[in-house]
Amino acid sequence: MEQLTKKSREEPFYPPAPTYKQPVVIVGIPAYNVERSIAKVVLRAQRFAEKVVVCDDGSSDMTVEIAKGLGADVVRHEQNLGYGVALRSLFQRARELGADVLVTLDGDGQHDPSEVPEIVKPIVNGSADVTIGSRFTSKSTGEYMPFYRRIGVKFITRLVNGSAKNGVSDAQSGFRAYGRRALDVLSVVEDGMGASVEILLDAGKHDLKICEVSSSCKYDNGDGVKTSTHNPIGQLGDVVMSIVRHVVEDKPLTILGIPGTLCLIAGVLFGVWMLQLYSVNHQIVTNIALASLAFTLIGLFAVFTAVTLYAISRIVQRTKNGKRD
Questions:
Q1: pLDDT the model gives residue 107
Q2: What proportion of the chain, given as a percentage, has pLDDT over 90?
Q3: How far apart are CA 250 and CA 165, in angstroms?
Q4: Dihedral angle computed from the Cα positions of residues 135, 136, 140 and 144, in that order, rounded to the nearest 10 degrees
Q5: Sheet harboring 73-77: ordered strands across?
Q6: 317 contacts: CB under 8 Å, gap ≥ 6
Q7: 234 — phi, psi (to 5°)?
Q8: Distance, C-alpha 155 to centroid of its chain
Q9: With bands split at pLDDT 50, 70 and 90, how would you rate the model's confidence at 243?
């Protein structure tokens, strides 16, 4: 009887509720001379991140002091090295901090930090490795973009979509989120604005899943002053050259080898024509001789470069595969 009473008093056993680890979200902000806007961006971003990291790219104003005073982790470049170098530093710092997700947004106030949870969501639920805050998935957002910027961004996006596996609507958005896998495999080589498309092309090579969410963007701070200070012409040139370099490096035999071979054939044909004329007139036609020489030299250079780049890419690929094994 006593045993039964004791058992009846025992409380039923309930297994402990499972605990879910919250992902470590780091917000990275590339910044250059943005003392007027950096405080607002940092304070808003801190509400949605484990830590805010500001990469100061050689600012000459109070950007560093303001960011440090607000508790941001500041990575300092002594001189202005470029947007790509700033992203490289942010990627490295995010890895050191053990980030599960790195969100990048500009320090000039163009992007709204309150949208960080939305851009992080596809990565947390496993549907994406990289998320882009697109300015064109919502018509109202794209309409506020200055006309010349809208044309430039759409042109660049079309070039990227023709060169990458994943089609996107906004290849130039700086508001992005990168999951752990993306942080591990992506590398930023470009120093300038071309880094934004380099990352997308590299993501395609590694079969990373890319998705887009709608995001807002401000192009002035409310009193008519533009938030972005980038030269649009220089930015466009930088990005286009980055795409060209990556396409050539990725497919050297197609991009350089085929045209080079055609030039060699043209050089040989001009040479044969020149010899035929010489056998009849006993005179060398200068224009034909120069054309033969030019096509031959261009063809040899293109084919040699294509073979060299192909060999280098194979060596790099084998090295990467060896490290994985």
A1: 92
A2: 46
A3: 13
A4: 60
A5: 73-77, 51-57, 25-31, 101-104, 176-179, 130-134, 210-214
A6: none
A7: -65, -40
A8: 16
A9: low
Q: Which helix (H) or strand (E) holds 252?
A: helix 252-252
Q: What is the pLDDT of residue 11?
A: 53
Q: How far apart are CA 285 and CA 265, in angstroms?
A: 19
Helix (H) or strand (E) holding 203: helix 195-205
Residues 289, 269 contacting (CB under 8 angstroms): no
pTM of the predicted model over 0.90: no
- The top-scoring range by mean pLDDT among 173-187, 195-209, 305-319 is 173-187
Burial class (CB in 10 A: 0-12, 13-18, 19+), 245: middle
Identify residue 252 by its one-letter amino acid code. Answer: P
Helix, strand or coil for residue 53? strand
Euclidean distance between CA atoms 44 and 296, whole angstroms: 61
What pairing do the DSSP bridges indicate for beta strands 73-77 and 51-57?
A: parallel
Look at the chain and count its residues.
325
Positive or negative, the CA dihedral 249, 184, 107, 97 is negative
Q: What does the alpha-carbon distance between residue 286 and residue 65 come to, in Å, rounded to a whole number?
A: 68
Asked if pLDDT for residue 1 goes beyond 50, the answer is no
Rounded Cα gap, residues 69 and 149, in angstroms? 34
How many CB atoms lie under 10 A from the CB of residue 319? 10
Q: Which residues contact 60 (CB under 8 A, 6 or more apart)?
A: 33
